[in-house]
Amino acid sequence: xxxxxxxxxxxxxxxxxxxxxxxxxxxxxxxxxxxxxxxxxxxxxxxxxxxxxxxxxxxxxxxxxxxxxxxxxxxxxxxxxxxxxxxxxxxxxxxxxxxxxxxxxxxxxxxxxxxxxxxxxxxxxxxxxxxxxxxxxxxxxxxxxxxxxxxxxxxxxxxxxxxxxxxxxxxxxxxxxxxxxxxxxxxxxxxxxxxxxxxxxxxxxxxxxxxxxxxxxxxxxxxxxxxxxxxxxxxxxxxxxxxxxxxxxxxxxxxxxxxxxxxxxxxxxxxxxxxxxxxxxxxxxxxxxxxxxxxxxxxxxxxxxxxxxxxxxxxxxxxxxxxxxxxxxxxxxxxxxxxxxxxxxxxxxxxxxxxxxxxxxxxxxxxxxxxxxxxxxxxxxxxxxxxxxxxxxxxxxxxxxxxxxxxxxxxxxxxxxxxxxxx
Length: 423
Fold this sequence. Notes:
About 20% of the residues lie in helices and about 25% in strands. By secondary structure, it is an alpha/beta fold. An eight-stranded parallel beta barrel has the order 4-5-6-7-8-9-10-11, surrounded by five helices. Strands 12-13-16-15 form a four-stranded antiparallel beta sheet. Strands 1-2-3 form a three-stranded antiparallel beta sheet, with no helix packed on it.
C-alpha cells in the first residue's frame, strides 16, 4: 500500500503552474520494520491535524501541522495560505451520497462525478501543500456499502492515473463489522484507510485487527461523544458533555487510538472540528467558539502535538447546576437559578455569559447542514460571578440553558443543560 512516482513534465493538461508557490510535494506511504509511516518530501511526517480551515496561525502556534478539507472546490487561496504557514493539506474530493438522492446506477451520475475528480486532481496535484487525496467522506452512510466502495474505487483509480505522488485515503463513518477489510479487498487503488470515529476512537486499533486489517490508517475525525452515541433526556434531547469532559474524551481517543500506534499502523489524525458548526447544538463539536476562543480540548491536543506543557490554559468548565426547577418539568415563565462549575488554571478573571436557546428543530444525520435555533430574549434576569437568575420561556417546548465562560485571553469553556417547558 505505497504511493510512489515522479511528477510529469508540465503540459497543457497539467492545471495551473504553482511553481511560484513552491515545488510539488511528494508523499509516500512507506512500510517500516514496525509498521508504516508517511514520508513527505523525503522526511517522515506524522499528521498532527484538524478538520477545518480557520485560525491557521493559531493552529501552527499550538503545534498542528496539517488540515483536511471535505471538498476541493475553490481552495486555491486556502492551499496557498496553508503552504505559507507550513501546513500540509489532505485535499478532500466530495463524492455524492445515495442518501442525498444520487443514483450510482445512473452512468451519467458516475461520469459527472469522475469528471469532477479529474478536474480537481489536475488542478491541485502540483501544489506544494497537498498531502493526500481524501476520496469522499462517509460515502456509505445511509446507503449501500457495495455501491459506495465501487464509487470510491472508481475515483481512486482515476486519481492514480493522474497523480502518483500523493496517497489516496478512503474515509468511512466508523469501521462497522467489515468496512476496513472490504476496502482492502475491493479498493486496490486506496493507499490509506481513514476512520471517522468518536466514542469508538480509543478502540480503533484493536477493532481493525479483529477485521483482519493490519494496514496503515488515519483517524480522520475524532472528538467528543457524538449526539447519536450518548444519553438523551426523556423528551429526546441529546445530552452534551461540558467542556472539561469533552477534553478528557479527546485525550483518551488520542492516547489509545492514535498515539498507541504511532510508529506503527497509525499515521496521524485530524481532530474535529477546527472551527464551529450547528450540529444538534452550536458547541457540540467546535474546538473554537464562534467568537474565536479556543477550548480546553485544544489545550490537550496541543500537549500531544508539541510533547510538552502549554503556557496558557482555557477555563475548565465541568457543568451547570440548576436550582428551584426540575429540568424536565419547567413552568412557562418560571424563575430559577443557575450556577456554572468553572475554574481557571492560570487564575484569570472569568467572564460568564448565559443564554437560553430553543432546542434544535432541524437535527440531521451525517453532519448535514442545520438551521441555527434562536436565542430566547429576556430569559437572563441577572448574572453575577458564576451564577445567574433566569426565567423560563413563556412558550412550552424544549430549550437549553447555555453558559460561555471566557478568560480574556481568547480561551473559553462551555456547557449546557436541556430543559422542557410544559403547561
